[in-house]
Input
Amino acid sequence: MKIFLSCTILLCLAVAAHVKAQPVEEGRTAATSPRGVESTGPYLVLTLPGHRDWVQSVAFDETGTRLVSTSSDSSVRTWNAVTGDSLLVMHGHRVTTLTASFSSDGAYVVSGSMDHTARIWSATDGHLISTLVPHYDWVVTARYVHHDSLVFTASSGYIRLWHPLSGDRIDSVHNDVPVLDLTPDGKLVFGASGGGYGALIRFDTDSTIERFDGVILGEFNHAGTQICMAMKDTSIVVWDIASRSIVARFKGHLGEVYSVSFDRAGRRVVSASADRTVRVWDIATGAQVFYAVAHDGAAICARFNPQGDRVASGGKDRAIRIWDVSASGVDAPVAGVRSEGVGVECLPNVTSGPFVVRLHGAGSGVAHVEVIDLLGNVVRSSEASAASGWVNVWMDASSLASGLYVVRVRIGGGMATSRLLVR
Output
């Protein structure tokens, strides 16, 4: 039985024929891909091109300034998350890389692959330090634990602990439930089959604390007190370990959820889905506070930075994108951003039909109105003659895909933007 850590595994199972062995010479190469492209909109910060196949996982380092990614192209890459520059491309895995993460000091990267190995790399120059074997199935989780003194890997029903420098195996435990995640204190394990069965298990006694139905995947929060789970009905559930109860349930995705993850504070959850969207949810209120049609094809993975104000996502379109999720929320009324004496707002903010772009303080002249998706594409445009005071420009969202858009107005030397959420 295969194990599913996140979107990466689910998609790999669905497209096993798509993934072929790609023999490569072990080692690393200096990055040559172009740097990230800044978006015209206020939410998409960077696009990071370079992978030659689907992006399977993304993870920030502890500073939030670097990013590591894995892909069906078998490489492991690191990036400057501020400038978008590609830093290192590490070769050695023979097929799809499924997971990678930095050590807490940022000096090393550990990766896991469908080639049944985990590998430790220098995050400074990309050289291979050790290969962690044996594993008898895909390595779907690989990360540093216990202040970088150990590396934890999960493969099929096995949990393994390794010495990070020598590559020696320290411990190995088998459980019937495919393992996905381990709490930071090493006491609890969460597993799910990907077909709807999940369990919370005590690591030391191998005893089951709770069983879950309808679960595809999930992971613990940073404190190890809650689990966020993607369900077969496309909803997302946050389950509290102490009370053994559901504390939040989020609904909105229109396709299978491939990735769920908490922010560092444990207050929000980010999700990625086959419906191409990345969404951020507030646990306390149950509200969706960020929404983006993030990729041209399925959004496979999404992770917060440690500061919680950025999300990195990867998709079937081979791109990595970094999003600004620091705004308070897209469902609140939006008055727009005032610039050079021009104000703009969309009425109503949530719509599936005609909507009004209202200009004020625009003076006189021709107002150029553009509706821009979060990839920077202009999907609607209109012009209207403006005079001093209020001017309403009618536009139609009926044929727009559901998602968050930016409305940008230019008139004379002034420019202003507002947000529009279409459902």
Observations:
- The radius of gyration is 23 Å.
